[in-house]
Amino acid sequence: MTQTLLHQILDYANRADPYPIYEELRRTPVHHDTDGPYVISTYYEIRSLLHDPRLSSDARNLASGGADPLAESASEESALPPSFLRLDPPEHDRLRRMTNRHFGPPHSPHRVDAMRPELHDIVGGLIDGLGDPGRIDLVEEFSYPFPVTVICRLLGIPREDEARFHTWADTLAASLDPDPDADPAERGKGTVEARMQLGMYLAGLIEERRKNPGDDMLSQLATAEGQDGPMTTMELLSTAALLLIAGHETTVNLITNGMLTLLRNPDVLQRLRAEPRLAVPIVEELLRFEPPVQLLPGRTALADIEVRGVTIPKGSTLWLVLASGNRDPQRFENPDRFDPDRPDVQHLGLGSGIHSCFGAPLARLEAQLALSELARRLEKPRLLEDPPPYRQNAVLRGPRHLRIACDGIRP
Q1: Are 388 and 140 in contact (CB under 8 A)?
Q2: 156-193, pLDDT tens digit by residue?
Q3: 114: phi > 0 → left, psi -120 to 50 → alpha, else beta; which?
């Protein structure tokens, strides 16, 4: 039964609505098959494990043998060393601390908020550039280009190089999704080539910024001399790649899932149009209701761990199904209802514990600005197909295309 449920999670046929499967999973909070991962699906157990130092995120601790069908994608890295996302303390803590010093509080509390005017301009430009209002692909024309442009501005990529950066991001993003129709060898070759070109470009840019630093984040990372010393070039490259891929992919899905949910809830969309500040609670409820990251695979037990009376042996692989925990009726009343007025929305949509989403402040702001401006400027928006076609990826869930129409675009 458990194996059948795991296959259902991975089955593309269920991508548009995986929540009935998660409901079935929650009947047994710790699911396990003899040769598969332990699957945790209830809110309090997931939250506890996210704070448990006995659970490792380091891909080097994953057992071999292929028992976890998502382990390969979870541990996949380029020739770069692992980013801090895939490390445990103390390595994780050092690199995250060094990166956060130039991204958020307490050392750089205004980094994200200071980008607000620029983000607003990017959003406005993309909406101005939407094509035929009778047939808009919101992913291709808005949700996809917006976050990668923001990452370029954050890192300080020269404007004339942004198009190349977008191309590399497109290739790397596509590599995250299974593609049963593509030639694996050719696809892999293209991914490796994009990684090499991106790596060489960033390495050159890092050296330039060490000699002539600006006020961008890459310059500050390249020239930092804090308590942990400077980052090596390889650490800088893996951190920049993390900001690009993780920061881009999750935000694309958050914005697209958000617009899809609003179009399915026109009363909330109308409220947002009249009250832009409602974007803040809307985004928090979206992170609970339709999180861009559905589950965290590739976790390893460093010791025996007991969860709800079940002993998970040392060395076992775990999946933490965040999206299932977010719909747990033991934690949230009427969990399958989208309710931006929900009084207590401590969701798992951005993780928790030491690996909580590093880019959360930026992702939240991007989604708030994007959804409030789309609500304000699109006249009578409506879905052209529901459900839309989804990405193949079972971990990073979101529509591959979101085709909508509207009667016009307000200035």
Answers
A1: no
A2: 988 898 888 878 877 777 776 666 667 777 777 888 88
A3: alpha
Q: Determine the residue type at 226.
A: G
In CATH, what class is 2-409?
mainly alpha
* Residue 214 CA to its chain's centroid (Å): 28
Is there a cis peptide before residue 389, judged by omega within 30 degrees of 0?
A: no
Residue type, 73: S
Do β-strands 305-307 and 310-312 pair in parallel, antiparallel, or remain unpaired?
antiparallel
Q: How many CA atoms within 13 Å lie on the side-chain side of 409?
A: 17
Helix, coil or strand: residue 310: strand
- CB-based contact 401:260 (threshold 8 Å): no
Radius of gyration of the chain (CA): 21
Distance CA 243, CA 84 (A): 11
CB 75 within 8 A of CB 197: no
Q: What predicted TM-score, i.e. pTM, was given to this entire model? A: 0.91
At residue 12, the 3 state secondary structure works out as helix
DSSP string, 35-89: TS-EEE-SHHHHHHHHT-TTEE--GGGSPSSS-STTHHHHH---SSPPPGGG--T
**Could you tell me the CA-to-CA distances from 11 to 8, 223, 270, 393 in Å, in that order?**
5, 46, 35, 10
Length of the chain in terms of residues written:
411
Report d(CA 360, CA 274) in Å as an integer. 26
Beta bridge partners, 40, equal 30, 320
Going from the C-alpha of 345 to that of each of 19, 325, 340, the distances in angstroms are 18, 12, 9
CA distance 355 to 86: 9
Contacts of 98 (CB under 8 A, 6+ apart): 221, 224, 226, 228, 231
Q: Is the dihedral of CA 306, 311, 313, 319 positive or negative?
A: negative
Burial of 52 (0-12, 13-18, 19+ CB in 10 A): middle
Tens digit of each residue's pLDDT (9 = 90 or more) over 296-332: 998 999 999 999 999 999 999 999 999 999 999 999 9
Q: Collapse the DSSP code of 45 into the 3-class scheme (helix H, G, I; strand E, B; otherwise coil) and give the result.
A: helix
Is residue 291 within 8 A of residue 347, CB to CB? The reply is yes
Summarize pLDDT for 229-275 with one digit per residue, the tens. 788 888 888 888 888 877 788 899 999 999 999 999 999 999 999 99
Sequence ranges of the domains in the chain: 2-409
